[in-house]
Amino acid sequence: MHPIHSRTSSLISLAGGKSHRGVSTIGLISHIAILTAVLVIVVGSVAAQADDELEQLGAAEPTAESLDFFESKIRPLLIDHCYECHGEDSQESELRVDTLAGMLTGGLAGASVIPGKPASSLLVTAVRYHDNDLKMPPDEKLSDTQIADVIRWVEMGAPHPDANTVGPIVPRNEVDLEEGRKHWAFQPPVKATPPIGDASMDVPNPIDAFVLTKLHAEGLGPNPPADKRTLLRRVTFDLTGLPPTPEEINAFLSDHSGNAFAKVVDRLLASPHYGERWARHWLDVARYADSNGLDENVVHGNAWRYRDYVVRSLNDDKPYDEFVVEQLAGDLLDSGSDVELRHERLIATGFLVLGPKVLAEKDQAKMEMDIIDEQIDTVGRSLMGLTLGCARCHTHKFDPISHHDYYGLAGIFQSTQTMDSYETVAKWHENTIETPDQAEELKQHQQRIDDQEELISKKISDAKSKLDPAPDAADKPDEIEKRFPDETQAELTSLRGDLDRLKGETPELPTAMGVVDGDIADTAVHLRGSHLTLGDVVPRRVPEVLALDDQPVIPADQSGRLEFAQWLTDGRHPLTARVMVNRLWRGHFGRGLVPTVDNFGLKGSPPTHPELLDWLAIRFVEEGWSIKAMHRMIVLSQTYQQSSDFDASNAERDPGNQLYWRFSVRRLEAEAIRDALLAVSGQLDRTTGGNIMQYKNREYVFNHTSQDKSKYDSNRRSIYVPVIRNHLYDMFQLFDYTDASVLNGDRNTSTIAPQALFLMNSEMVSDLTFAMADRLLNDDADSAQRIQRLYLEAYGRPASDAEISDGVRFLSRFETILRENNVGSLSSESNPERSAWQAFCQAVVSSSEFVYLR
Amino acid sequence: MQFSRRRLLQNTAAGFGSLALASLLADEARGASGSAASLLTSPHFPPKAKRVIFLFMKGGPSHMDTFDHKPQLQKDDGKPLPFEKPRVQFAPTSNLLASPWKFKQYGESGIAVSELFPHVAECVDDLCIINSLHGTNPAHGGASMKLHTGSDVFVRPSMGSWVTYGLGTENQNLPGFITICPTLAHGGTKNWGSAFLPASVSGTPIGNASQSSDQARVKYVENARLSLDAQRMQLDLTQSMNRGFLETTGPDSDLEARIQSFELAFRMQTEMPEVLDLEAETEATHKLYGIDNETTADFGRQCLMARRFAERGVRFVQVTHSNTEVQWDQHGNLRKGHAQNAAEVDLPIAGLLKDLKTRGLLDDTLVLWGGEFGRTPTCQGSGQDGRDHNPEGFTMWMAGAGLKTGIQYGATDEYGYYAVENKVHLHDLHATMLHLLGLDHERLTYRHAGRDFRLTDVAGKVVHDIFA
After folding, report:
1. Which residues of A364-429 form beta strands (DSSP E)?
2. Which of A70, A219, A427, B178 is most buried, taking the most CB atoms under 10 A from its CB?
3. Beta partners for B128?
């Protein structure tokens, strides 16, 4: 057994309590176990075996002298300054200091006194007044003598008259691992056989087997399949984020083969637009952004490389385990001599660097830990569905993640170089990713610069040697040059001009946000999350509840990111596959099987279909973590293909459609709305990849000014539109785009008046609907045919006769009202016919049918 | 299925801030079991204030030069600070620097105010001046986010969003939270954003700090091309399409809300320009706010807009005093900079206070004035004319809302470096503000990412001492 694992159980065993794991571990006492056990020992439950160590730490049975010190110096001070809020009558933050037990147990922030360790004792932190967030007594600092007494008392081992009567104390912040592991999400998934059901069930797809069984058990039945047009619009938006074209619709309608839909799915999965669509889902989870946000909103000039990496990975159906390992530890993978592969993997580690950072934080140690915290929070929630960040200041309040677990992981990230400088304005790390050609070009260019410099110095020395009298060593160089012949001086000016030009033309090597290993070290527990109060050093490791006996072995000379990533993706981790298949399900159905997609902890929602979730998770791993195979399986299910029709009786029993008796109607995301507007107006630029930002790397989008440099006037797909934190494209923001500063795998869908205002009054919608109108008017067609075309493009279906006649009537009445409004001021731009068509197009794309999928 | 509060809030908010406290409390009363209970219709406490106007002085006005008179500092000009400077400072500073401005006692209370604020000084008996504010972050970005959202590290909802989330709006045709000419730097939208709260409670910006306030508009609220009757005709078509779609899907609260949201949007188009039309006000009012004067016109307009929003039931109005730079940030040029800044805001603020009072609005409006931090009593730069950021002790003042007035609460040390007496942390300020609005800062929570969040995180104490 790795010694670390015994920490908790050793403590409990020593204290005479029950071991979490039911194993006596006294014989396995590690150094660490002793360190943490000390306080228990001190209060009386002294295990004979530990006496020696105890002596070494300077803690002992209280002597009369030391008790006298407590009674004369410490207790009066506690009575005067602390008891009012932390005594018998009132226990603010659940802390009382009128008993030894109270101090050792501690309050919400953890143990208040750790005998022998003033630096780790919150009582000392508080009275020292060094930590802005913990200053006690709140009204006035104790005198220097009093503070020194408190420190001395803790150093003495906190002698206290209660010492012999207090039972074993377990400070707050201990985790019951055995109990914790009972949570469903920490149990390994179990692959149930998909139920077969009765003969009437035609269930080729295991998903349907699970879903239908549950539906039938509740006395509900599924809807019939959706009609082909609806289905095509649904799956095309779902897999590519774009509407189907009239040609695609006709092709599908005329394909009567049994696998017509499967062919469509394969076509869509093979489209480059698939990666653009699903990368955006991942980017929500990766809190992707093209600027830092927070306090110093500087440009992430190379973040786009990471974005393109995600698009490529999805289009290539890169196995998810590889995808994860590359993002956490791509720099540590052996890529041999494959430069391109190496660069790809360096770019992938941008995942760890993309978070928002307070770059002007003056407390550099705090900044470092804040950045690590952001990484832990992101990694925890994105890959494991665990809110690990909650354990920064204290043991997790709900999940079995201890304060020590957190700092075990923190050590991995502290051993990783994320930042190059913490000086204001701090700089994140970027890896150079030059090709051999680019490196060679730079080398040659540098050579040209060197040659030029040499030429200049040679000219100077030649000219110098000809000077008479010879220049003195003390003469200033420019003074000397003034004595050169005019033509030499002119020549030098010209050569220097060339040199400056050369230097200015130095090619910049491409770089990518990313990490490498830094100074390897374990991290100490930060009591209350503060770097000013450090506790035990925790070896780098993963949370115990998930790996009690099989901690990955982390090499002493590496951060441990690679081992961490491999541990996540070894196929046995109870969360990795479950969390990802749930994200995929969420993408297809608008809600996860676990509705809280980023939280599988005790406060998350339990799965609605646990057997199905497990079955999918295991299948995912068995199929080599293929994301496309999972898409295929889901969208080819009857569950996915059923209609969204309302059924009063089903709705009464299951109004939220938790059981999937229909396909839930849902609004398109901001990006899909924008892309669809561009597509339908014929304005969409389908170029893939690359950077469209005009900023330099690390340039301010907002300096200390409010001058807005953000630009969103592109017709590229939405995924390429810059994501400027604190100043998102307002259309995106209105339609519930991710905040881009925190990961979010489950965007809201709000319905608010400003969305309507945008559709009614924005320049973008106006411009695009004019473009639509112009396209329609350019057709040699009558109004009815134009309306038909518009409906087919916008809604994927033809207009009904009633819709055509309503449309025609609107066009004529609107034209009339425009003429009345604009008597005498008609210009070509306000051509009433064109304007009427524009208004009609705008109504069509503003309506619910355009922005909703059914 | 029970529709959860969250789902209701997220999905069916028909417009801005239509989240009544009643539904919030009713849901809390229902508890985890989800069973329906009686519908509470009152706030946590009887509210003293119905709304907030926050006058934000971007950059950090110097408290020793405005509302925190320090005679000892005047005496010890040029001497070294006789105690330690904070562990973390924004930049190095040298010795003590006396205030270049004279202080004078005003009103019945006799509170000393510097000559920078002669007009506000006339209202000093209506002010509750807190001299013992303190925060944690000495940089603009962190401090600004701490002030606006309670956190200088994480993305959290802004205080205006919390208030709107808690109380909703009194005017269904206007947003519940409006921020006039906010700065886009140092947190930018984060400072009025709703973070994980429903989008409907995020602040609606009117212009930004780089624009003159007469150019400030709400985006998309006007249609340049269509007359209202033409647009109504178009909207009728859209709405008939929307109703048609709803028929095909069956009852759906989102789609029903969507139809409502278009009607609200249409009404807002009329309402919003009407509020922003300051020409509707009398010449005397313009004069009261200094709109007739070049120096004060810009901020005067902002203050007058704030009053017009407040009287129309907007819950939280923030008015930012900032130009394209960090207005009050005088690391150097203190004399000129602070004089100019104060001249721009002094008269308009006094005008606002007087106007609110005359109209009876001051009784139930909380006016809050201050910056993200104060400034050091020690000197920065070589010219004996600058002060650094100081979050360790600074001043903000409140007015209205049933507060004790004509008082100074708390104190900094004899030079103004640290808050020492009756200290009020920014978390305490938030707790106190919520209390005045009838909200318990510990109960105004929102479940997100596995836990309940609140404006005051795990801190915050209500400063009961300043309540009348």
Report:
1. 416-417, 419-421, 427-428
2. B178
3. B398, B407
| Both tokens assigned to A137 | 């007594």
d(CA B298, CA B290): 9
How near does any CA of chain A get to the CA of B462, in Å? 14
CA geometry: angle A815, A818, A822, nearest 5 deg: 140
Closest C-alpha among A664, A658, A216 to residue B1: A658
Contact B383, B97 (CB under 8 A): no
- What ipTM is given for this predicted complex? 0.81
Q: Closest approach of chain A CAs to the CA of B131, in angstroms? A: 15
Q: Is B391 exposed, middle or buried (0-12, 13-18, 19+ CB in 10 A)?
A: buried
The three-point CA angle B430-A381-A749 to 5° equals 70
Q: Cα(A808)–Cα(A783) distance, rounded to whole angstroms?
A: 7
Report if residue B300 sits inside a domain. yes
Cα(A370)–Cα(B136) distance, rounded to whole angstroms? 15
**Encoded tokens for A185:** 């999400």
* Domain count across chain B: 1
User: Is there a domain that residue B268 lies in?
Assistant: no
Residue A386 near residue A380 (C-beta atoms within 8 A): yes
Q: Which H or E run contains B166?
A: helix B159-167
Q: Are A391 and A405 in contact (CB under 8 A)?
A: yes
Q: What is the pLDDT of residues A733-769, one digit of tens each?
A: 889 898 888 898 998 888 888 899 999 999 999 999 9
Separation in Å, CA B36 to CA B8, B33, B167 = 15, 9, 21
| Assigned token pair, A735 | 């339609």
CB B350 within 8 A of CB B212: no
> Do the Cβ atoms of B317 and B53 come closer than 8 Å?
yes
Whether residue A297 and residue B451 make contact (CB cut-off 8 A), yes or no, is: no
Prediction pTM value? 0.80
- A739 and B193 in contact by Cβ < 8 A? yes
Q: Read off the DSSP letter of residue A331.
A: G
For residues A693 and A627, what is the distance between their CA atoms, to the nearest angstrom? 30
Spatial neighbors of B103 by CB under 8 A, at least 6 apart, are: B69, B112, B113, B114, B115
Q: How many CA atoms lie within 13 A of A76 on its CB side?
A: 7
Residue B193: band (very low, low, confident or very high) from pLDDT cuts 50, 70, 90: confident
Computed over every residue of chain A, the mean pLDDT equals 87
Instruction: Check A848 against B255: CB less than 8 A apart.
Output: yes
Residue B33 has pLDDT above 70, yes or no: no
Domain, as residue range, for B205: 5-38+47-222+286-426
pLDDT, tens digit, for every residue of A441-457? 999 999 999 999 999 99
**Cβ burial A259-288 (10 Å sphere, 16+ → b, else e):** eebeebbebbbebebbbbbbbbbbbbbbbb
- A818–B258 C-beta distance less than 8 A: no
Residue A402 CB neighbour total at 10 angstroms: 25
What sign results for the dihedral spanned by CA atoms A71, A76, A81, A87? positive
CATH of the domain at B404: 3.40.720
A748 interfacial to chain B (CB closer than 8 Å): yes
Is the sign of the CA dihedral A710, A711, A716, A717 positive or negative?
Answer: positive
How far apart (Å, rounded) are the C-alpha atoms in residues A236 and A671? Answer: 14
Q: In Å, what is the CA distance from A29 to each residue of A8, A14, A312, A543, A713?
A: 11, 9, 50, 20, 65
pLDDT tens sequence across A196-215:
755 455 557 899 999 999 99
Question: What is the tens place of the pLDDT at every residue in A31-85?
Answer: 433 333 333 333 333 333 333 333 333 345 788 888 888 988 899 889 989 998 8
Instruction: Let me know if B23 is exposed, middle or buried by CB neighbors in 10 A (0-12, 13-18, 19+).
Output: middle
**For residue A751, which residues of chain B lie inside 8 Å, CB to CB?**
11-14, 254, 257-258, 261
